């Protein structure tokens, strides 16, 4: 994926809606492209997480392993497709954290990986951009919490 195509993908996703061209240029400088086959994991619950992922193409289940008495297995928290975002805690906390869910590719998937530490550094250096990103991360967390509560209602 060429840089202009990556920037267009970043700009079109809901997570980075209304990002300035300057910040888009900066962010695209610390992104990489990852490809995953169907059935593989982008990350697993219990691993250390540091990055954000934006789905370019594919379909990913966000899953949480559960062990509630007679209920053992995993529950799908959310089903995510093109333009959706995964991860974020390390960007907010400034340190790696233990991931609370797994991201399982249901189809061959391509994602843009944003380095959480680099994004945080940009947020600290530019307070207006930092506020913009904190707002975007807050919306992402809100959506994830709502999805998790919805998944719990189905148990």
UniProtKB/TrEMBL annotation:
SUPFAM superfamilies: cAMP-binding domain-like
UniProt domain Cyclic nucleotide-binding: residue ranges: 15-96
CDD domains: CAP_ED
Gene3D superfamilies: Jelly Rolls
Pfam families: cNMP_binding (PF00027)
Protein name: Cyclic nucleotide-binding domain-containing protein
């Amino acid at each position: 994926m060429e840089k202009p195509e990556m920037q267009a993908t970043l700009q079109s996703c809901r997570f980075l809606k209304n990002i300035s061209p300057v910040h888009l240029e900066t962010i695209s400088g610390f992104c990489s492209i990852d490809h995953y086959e169907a059935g593989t994991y982008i990350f697993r619950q219990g691993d250390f997480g540091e990055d954000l992922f934006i789905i370019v193409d594919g379909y990913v289940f966000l899953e949480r392993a559960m062990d509630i008495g007679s209920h053992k297995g995993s529950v799908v928290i959310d089903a995510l497709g093109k333009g959706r975002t995964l991860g974020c805690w390390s960007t907010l906390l400034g340190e790696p954290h233990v991931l609370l869910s797994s991201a399982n590719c249901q189809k061959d998937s391509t994602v843009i990986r944003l380095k959480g530490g680099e994004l945080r550094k940009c947020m600290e250096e530019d307070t207006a951009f930092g506020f913009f990103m904190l707002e975007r991360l807050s919306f992402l967390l809100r959506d994830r919490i709502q999805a998790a509560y919805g998944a719990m209602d189905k148990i």
